[in-house]
Amino acid sequence: MAAIGEARRPRSGREMRRRRRRGPEPVEMRQRRHGYFPHVFVWRGREHRVQAVERCWTLSRRGQGGRIEGHCFRVRCREGTFDLFQDARTGIWQMKRRAR
């Protein structure tokens, strides 16, 4: 840690990537299109309106008879592109990552 008055060294790309990999974050799904696709969600206190669902896929486990774990959606909003995940068992939505 830098002492008071000392300049901090710039963070390396490796450090920045490590900081970004925090894991899934909670998302409040406010509205869905056709009762299935994300349409409006809140993440980190900001509301995001989905302009397009670019991709969707289902995650399942082979070892448990193909039990569905959840549904993933890559969505495009004005603020960027995001990967959202809905847990099939609990219905909880999470931000998996902000896509680049």
Structural class: mainly beta
What's the total number of strands?
6
- The mean pLDDT is 86
The helix fraction, in percent, is under 10%
Note the main sheet: 6 strands, antiparallel, barrel
Shape assignment:
globular
Gyration radius (Cα, Å) is 17 Å
* SSE topology string: HEEEEEE
Strands across the major sheet, in which order?
1-2-3-4-5-6
Number of helices: 1
Question: What distance separates the N and C termini?
Answer: 31 Å
Number of domains: 1
How much of the sequence is in beta strands?
over 45%
Low-confidence stretches: none
How would you explain this protein's 3D organization?
The structure is a single chain. With 100 residues, this protein is mostly beta strands. The chain is built from one helix and six strands. The chain has one helix spanning 13-20; strands at 25-33, 37-43, 46-61, 67-77, 80-87, 93-99. It has a six-stranded antiparallel beta barrel. Strand 2 (37-43) and strand 3 (46-61) form a beta hairpin. It is globular and about 55 Å long. The two termini are 31 Å apart. 11% of the residues are buried. The mean pLDDT is 86.
